[in-house]
Specification:
mainly alpha, about 70% helix
Length: about 280
């Protein structure tokens, strides 16, 4: 009899375990999961570092880049990101957006950090007006991106690519030839350089051809890379010049000897001719 009671108890225990595995106590399971998520977030919060600070005195665009990089690389998950980003603000930005703390929906939302950054990026707060930003980007590549005399072509191309990237951000696609015209204008080439460019590219003024010409035109190869040493070349030239001088001197000496021999022959021949003329008389 006791064995049947023990068997019934064991079966009830098995059903309890299956119910636990199948979610038989949903409230307890959900609560335990939330506690685990909170614990995980708090543990990882200390390992991920803090978001970038901002008080409104530096350009908002730079802060936005650093904040998005932090969101992309942080180990903090879910609803902890937004409060940390808000906590990193000081001064006027904090005064403007601290009301989010009173909104429970924002505090508990997994995308609260993106919501906060999107609100900050609006034109009425710290974001730039899109039309104004577009005009500024076009003005930069047209008038302001100029190459200085001491600037290398690598540095100039880096600035030029950044300026063109701001133009393409507004979904503006300039014709390749017009972009090449702006690039020539930015390089500030004089007439001779422009003619050399067109000769090299056979009239093509696309940015790819212009960049290729400038790289090859300003590449300076050392003499050692070409197998030519200045000192060695100079000594060889001097040797060849000395050799030519020696050849000329030898030729002059031979010519002088021939002339002297001819004069001696003429001198010896002259008395015989005078004697023949006397006998004839």
């Amino acid at each position: 009899m006791g064995s049947d009671s023990d068997l019934a108890t064991f079966r009830r225990f098995q059903r309890f375990l299956r119910a636990e595995q199948d979610g038989g106590c949903p409230r307890r399971t959900r609560r335990s999961r939330e506690d685990d998520d909170d614990k995980e977030g708090h543990e990882q919060k200390g390992q991920a570092g803090v978001p970038p600070t901002w008080d409104g005195s530096t350009p908002f665009e730079d802060y936005m880049i650093r904040a998005r990089l932090w969101l992309a690389t942080t180990k903090v998950k879910g609803r902890f990101r937004g409060p940390l980003v808000l906590k990193s603000l000081t001064g006027t930005p904090l005064e403007t957006f601290k009301h989010y703390v009173k909104e429970l929906m924002w505090l508990n939302g997994n995308g609260n950090a993106e919501t906060l950054l999107s609100a900050m990026d609006q034109p009425e707060h710290y974001g730039e007006d899109q039309q104004e930003h577009m005009l500024r980007a076009l003005s930069r590549v047209t008038y302001h991106t100029k190459r200085s005399r001491t600037e290398t072509w690598r540095d100039f191309f880096a600035r030029w690519d950044v300026a063109m990237r701001k133009v393409r951000h507004h979904k503006i696609a300039l014709p390749a030839e017009y972009e090449g015209f702006l690039l020539i204008n930015g390089l500030q080439l004089h007439e001779g350089e422009t003619r050399a460019l067109l000769n090299f590219t056979r009239g093509c003024i696309k940015p790819v051809s212009i960049k290729d010409w400038l790289r090859k035109n300003e590449t300076k190869l050392a003499a050692s890379e070409l197998g030519a040493d200045k000192k060695k070349t100079s000594s060889v030239l001097h040797t060849e010049m000395d050799y030519d001088v020696e050849i000329d001197n030898d030729q002059d000496e031979e010519l002088d000897q021939e002339i002297a021999t001819l004069e001696t022959f003429l001198t010896d021949l002259q008395p015989d001719q005078e004697a023949d003329e006397t006998e004839t008389l």
